[in-house]
TrEMBL record:
<comment type="similarity">
    <text>Belongs to the spermidine/spermine synthase family.</text>
</comment>
<comment type="function">
    <text>Catalyzes the irreversible transfer of a propylamine group from the amino donor S-adenosylmethioninamine (decarboxy-AdoMet) to putrescine (1,4-diaminobutane) to yield spermidine.</text>
</comment>
<dbReference type="Pfam" id="PF01564">
    <property type="entry name" value="Spermine_synth"/>
</dbReference>
<keyword id="KW-0620">Polyamine biosynthesis</keyword>
<dbReference type="Pfam" id="PF17284">
    <property type="entry name" value="Spermine_synt_N"/>
</dbReference>
<feature type="binding site">
    <location>
        <position position="106"/>
    </location>
    <ligand>
        <name>S-methyl-5'-thioadenosine</name>
    </ligand>
</feature>
<dbReference type="GO" id="GO:0005829">
    <property type="term" value="C:cytosol"/>
</dbReference>
<feature type="binding site">
    <location>
        <position position="162"/>
    </location>
    <ligand>
        <name>S-methyl-5'-thioadenosine</name>
    </ligand>
</feature>
<feature type="binding site">
    <location>
        <begin position="155"/>
        <end position="158"/>
    </location>
    <ligand>
        <name>spermidine</name>
    </ligand>
</feature>
<dbReference type="InterPro" id="IPR001045">
    <property type="entry name" value="Spermi_synthase"/>
</dbReference>
<dbReference type="GO" id="GO:0004766">
    <property type="term" value="F:spermidine synthase activity"/>
</dbReference>
<keyword id="KW-0963">Cytoplasm</keyword>
<dbReference type="InterPro" id="IPR037163">
    <property type="entry name" value="Spermidine_synt_N_sf"/>
</dbReference>
<feature type="binding site">
    <location>
        <position position="62"/>
    </location>
    <ligand>
        <name>spermidine</name>
    </ligand>
</feature>
<feature type="active site" description="Proton acceptor">
    <location>
        <position position="155"/>
    </location>
</feature>
<dbReference type="InterPro" id="IPR035246">
    <property type="entry name" value="Spermidine_synt_N"/>
</dbReference>
<comment type="pathway">
    <text>Amine and polyamine biosynthesis; spermidine biosynthesis; spermidine from putrescine: step 1/1.</text>
</comment>
Length: 277
């Protein structure tokens, strides 16, 4: 008998993958968690019925959260990752030798525990001495640590369950206050095919707080529609003013110095969302 997992991405559309086995399934204190082994994409982390990451395509998301912002900031020594308990963003952050300390604040300790066990390729740097792992509410951590971080990365699920408050204007104001005077933040902001209204709202909220706001994109096949956006808010530095010739080559699979500016070139229908006429 064949077993298939289907993520219902909208009321009328979904993606499906053939399953080898279910490695873990648990209702945590915050969400339903499963790790399944699929034929096409390998081991897959699923939270509340949504694909968070897979062994095959995880590098795209994790690289694109970390590297554009870290190559924009002039000297990112102290970095915060909100969410991201699978450890993939932390792994990419640590490729930057100038980062002295990376703090991960994940509300659900079970995500960390099971990622270490079943997704070691992704979570392998969570025990690095440059990393501090805190199991707590990222929203509260932001508001309790003012003027602390050079870069803040929000690696959240979609705005459901415990992640709802991570898409609110008050959270972005808290991020602004938690950043130093030249600080930059980035957040994943979903896809323009199904969540255009979300992208538009986040962009408007962030523009009311940060003087420089840019949206960029990447292709992630297991995420809804495959086209994914990220929103960067900066206090002083424009990512488009960075000289790509000064960006060092890192061991990446998606991000390159030549891609740094290119990802900010948006299709017109996405441009219309972030810069409505």
């Amino acid at each position: 008998m064949e077993l298939w997992y289907t993520e219902k991405q909208t009321d009328h559309f979904g993606i499906t993958a053939k399953i080898k086995q279910t490695l873990v399934e648990e209702q945590t204190d915050f969400q339903h968690l499963a790790i399944i082994d699929t034929v096409e994409f390998g081991r897959m982390l699923v939270l509340d019925g949504m694909v968070m990451t897979t062994i095959k395509d995880e590098f795209v998301y994790h690289e694109m959260v970390a590297h554009p912002v870290l190559h924009t900031h002039p000297n990112p020594k102290h970095v915060l990752v909100v969410g991201g308990g699978d450890g993939g963003v932390i792994r990419e952050v640590l490729k930057h030798p100038e980062v002295e300390k990376a703090v991960l604040v994940e509300i659900d300790g079970k995500v960390i525990e099971y990622s270490k066990k079943y997704l070691p390729e992704i979570a392998g740097e969570l025990n690095n001495p440059r990393v501090e792992v805190i199991v707590n509410d990222g929203y509260m951590h932001i508001h309790e640590n003012k003027n602390t971080y050079d870069v803040i990365m929000v690696d959240s699920t979609e705005p459901v369950g415990p992640a709802v408050q991570l898409f609110e204007k008050g959270f972005y104001q808290g991020i602004y206050d938690a950043l130093k005077e030249d600080g930059i933040f980035v957040a994943q902001t979903d896809n323009p095919w199904f969540k255009g209204d979300l992208i538009q709202k986040v962009n408007q909220d962030v523009k009311e707080i940060f003087p420089i706001v840019k949206v960029y994109q990447a292709n992630i096949p297991t995420y809804p529609s495959g086209l994914w956006t990220f929103t960067m808010g900066s206090k002083t530095v424009d990512p488009l003013n960075i000289d790509e010739n000064n960006i060092p080559e890192l061991p990446t699979k998606y991000y390159t110095p030549r891609l740094h500016k290119a990802v900010f070139a948006l299709p017109r229908f996405v441009e219309d969302l972030v810069n409505p006429k």
